[in-house]
Structure to design on (333 residues):
């Protein structure tokens, strides 16, 4: 992929939407793909146990339109990770990403997520097992440190050890993960952001793809980070203000601006809801991910209220769409 203006090769990881539990399901990703053709999308974290002992299709099925798409795995046992990576490749995912950043107690009880940063050789063994099993990229998402370990040496040594196992792409959340005393939400807000450590990783490992995650929202912030690293992963901003994705392809990939409107995206989602309804999926489960589509515009609040109204859940999505765009005084409950 080339930047037409600069003549440089752009990383496939240049812009991505973060894996977010309970949010980035297949319906959310379909919606985001309508907004950006280039953004790399990630599943919610799926544990190796869920894949090896549960309903594989329920966890792995996705819409063909979602590519490029990565499966994020939670686990620590190399053989299990390799078996799940094989499933990901069989299901035609474009990447397998190992979660080494989630600080939740449930994840810690499973001995994976952020606590794996204390065991870089185990992570390296898992990466090698997956790389030996599949031909698609194996990547790692991690923090800059855990608990009170704040030295650059800690994250540098982690990346160096895992890179020796063949990992070439690291997505770095620029905060520490506190394994005790903070909730997952607090872990996204309280530990300070230290982007300079991620920038330093890129300088020290120029051969690796280094992407930054954490607290990045505006196009200006994205552009500033891309001066230092290969890619930016955006999380909650992409979910709550999804229209921001609509300018990514033109602004950050050098593509001609898409002839895109919010109304056209909504219409495409209504059609998608109808297809999902034929499969037994309620439209409310789909449209909950699109409620930020008109954020910042007049009438956005009422539009959200209509699509969130439980009293309308029995109506076909096209009728709800019509109600959402009626004059307020014409709406009857």
């Amino acid at each position: 992929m080339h930047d037409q203006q600069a003549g440089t090769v752009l990383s496939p990881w240049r812009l991505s939407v973060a894996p977010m539990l309970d949010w980035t399901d297949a319906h959310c990703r379909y919606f985001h793909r309508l907004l950006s053709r280039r953004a790399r999308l990630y599943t919610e974290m799926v544990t190796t146990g869920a894949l090896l002992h549960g309903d594989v299709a329920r966890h792995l099925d996705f819409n063909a339109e979602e590519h490029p798409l990565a499966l994020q795995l939670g686990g620590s046992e190399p053989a299990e990770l390799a078996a799940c990576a094989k499933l990901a490749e069989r299901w035609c995912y474009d990447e397998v990403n190992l979660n080494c950043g989630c600080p939740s107690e449930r994840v810690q009880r499973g001995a994976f997520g952020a606590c794996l940063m204390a065991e870089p050789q185990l992570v390296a063994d898992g990466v090698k097992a997956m790389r030996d099993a599949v031909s698609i990229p194996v990547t790692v998402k991690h923090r800059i440190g855990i608990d009170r370990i704040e030295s650059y040496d800690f994250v540098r040594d982690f990346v160096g050890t895992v890179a020796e196992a063949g990992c070439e792409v690291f997505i770095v959340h620029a905060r520490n993960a506190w394994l005790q005393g903070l909730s997952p939400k607090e872990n996204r807000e309280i530990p300070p952001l230290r982007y300079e450590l991620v920038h330093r990783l890129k300088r020290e490992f120029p051969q690796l793809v280094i992407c930054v995650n954490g607290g990045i929202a505006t196009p200006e912030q994205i552009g500033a980070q891309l001066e230092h690293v290969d890619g930016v992963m955006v999380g909650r901003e992409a979910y709550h203000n999804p229209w921001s994705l609509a300018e990514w392809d033109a602004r950050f990939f050098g593509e001609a601006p898409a002839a895109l409107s919010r109304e056209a995206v909504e219409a495409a989602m209504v059609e998608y809801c109808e297809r999902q309804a034929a499969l037994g999926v309620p439209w409310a489960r789909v449209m909950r991910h699109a409620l930020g589509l008109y954020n910042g515009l007049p009438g956005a609040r009422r539009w959200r209220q209509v699509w969130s109204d439980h009293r309308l859940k029995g109506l076909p999505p096209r009728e709800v769409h019509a109600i959402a765009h009626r004059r307020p005084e014409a709406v009857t409950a």
